[in-house]
Please model this.
Amino acid sequence: MFLGPPGSGKGTYASRLGPILGIPHISTGDIFREEANRNTPLGKEVAGYMSRGELVPDDLTVQVLKERMKRPDCLNGYILDGYPRTIRQAEELDKFSSVDVVILLKILEDILIGKLSARRVCGKCGEIYNIADIRRTVSGQTFDLPAMLPKVSGICDKCGGELIQRKDDTEHVIRNRLMVYREQAEPLVRYYRDKGLIEDIYVTSGPNIMVPKIREQLKRRVEKA
Model:
């Protein structure tokens, strides 16, 4: 499972780590956006919460997640991204699934806002890009977060779809999302830290460096077990 504030890289790292481990990356955010794009009754309800930067209610989230986990590709495990976000969701998850490890991503808020505001997503397949190139030192810590650009500006490398800025990636909505995250993440982090499942990862570089770093930390955890 990946935990961390919006824009910390949960989707980016999980989508790259999944194929390496041979398990699917399950993003509740992607599932919600799929429903919203289909304009189903559930999708319309979900879209309202997302456009305001609010969390989708627990009952709806659990319902969607259970259905996704029934698919055959989940038989050998999966990576969760964006769930759980509340203690109640974590307790519900414990009823139908087990958690091996929780990767907690940490990143400075001002850098996070800069990266999130520059995020671009394929409107067709959901592939993630970023137009911000952040290279600076803050309080003695060096950040090297290069842009993740497509080969052709505005066009997805993977499927040729148009790249868009999501409505929830504007600065006003981002700040609201971060406030909501801070309020709900602290008890959730305590919940999993008390279980001894947390692995802290400080995000200071791009995926090419961070993904191997995460994999190595997971390997050390398995060796200790």
